[in-house]
Amino acid sequence: MLTLDLHPIFRSNRDLDIALRQALFRAAATGVDVLQVIPGKGTGALRQRVLNTLAQAHLKKLYARVEVDPANPGRILVHLR
Fold it and tell me: Dihedrals φ, ψ of 63, to 5°?
């Protein structure tokens, strides 16, 4: 499992997008089954930005499904193909 913590870069949309793409491509290239993204438990705005980024068509090809952890809403699990 590869982990991406978004707490240090939450203010910049561009940095967020770049970090998420790099982690997703790195996970797909290394054969990791699950990418864990940690946006935090705040108001949910950062979680929604992450989900919107992952919903882009060219990124959807890299993963099988996205799951928001029901026990911990501050954690998103991206299951790769």
Answer: -130, 160
Handedness of CA 20, 24, 30, 33 (dihedral sign): positive
What is d(CA 79, CA 41) in angstroms, rounded to the nearest whole number?
Answer: 21
Distance between CA atoms of 20 and 26, rounded to whole angstroms? 10
Q: List per-residue pLDDT tens for the chain, 81 residues long.
A: 899 998 888 788 888 899 999 999 999 899 899 999 999 887 788 899 999 999 999 989 989 999 998 898 889 999 998
37 exposed, middle or buried (CB, 10 Å; 0-12, 13-18, 19+)?
buried
Contacts of 7 (CB under 8 A, 6+ apart): 38, 40
The pTM of this model reads 0.87
- DSSP bridge pairs for 3: 36
